[in-house]
UniProtKB/TrEMBL annotation:
The keyword Nucleotidyltransferase does not apply. It comes from Caldicellulosiruptor kronotskyensis (strain DSM 18902 / VKM B-2412 / 2002). The keyword Transmembrane helix applies. This is Spore cortex biosynthesis protein, YabQ-like protein. It comes from the Bacteria. InterPro entries: YabQ. The chain crosses the membrane at residues 6-30, 42-63, 69-86. Pfam families: Spore_YabQ. Keywords: Membrane, Transmembrane, Transmembrane helix.
Length: 106
């Protein structure tokens, strides 16, 4: 039986915010640019695992792993909108937090 339009819109908006969450996970792990190469690789590996876990858990709670074309579209739209709107502000905030925590006087 096909889903109602309101159910599909609800799934779309939920997956859109799931894309936002994935963008936040990636930005949270890449805010520190002064890292050794191996440390950056480890952080990339950890962020990839964490974002995959966020996606799997989110898809389980949103639509019980039912993957439709609009699921991928909404996650991609969420990541795109996050990267072009909130990401610069969030990265600036993380840089300030990094400065305070590491006591840099730059």
């Amino acid at each position: 039986m096909p889903k109602s339009i309101f159910s599909q819109i609800s799934d779309f908006t939920s997956c859109f915010f799931l894309g936002f969450a994935v963008g936040i996970v990636f930005d949270s792990f890449f805010f520190k640019r002064i890292l050794k190469r191996r440390t950056r690789e480890i952080l990339f590996f950890i962020s990839s695992i964490l974002s995959t876990a966020v996606l799997i858990a989110g898809l389980m709670f949103i639509n019980f792993y039912t993957l439709k074309w609009y699921t991928f579209l909404s996650i991609a739209c969420g990541i795109y909108v996050y990267k072009n709107t909130i990401s610069p502000l969030y990265k600036g905030f993380l840089k300030k937090v990094n400065k305070v925590l590491s006591f840099n006087k730059r």
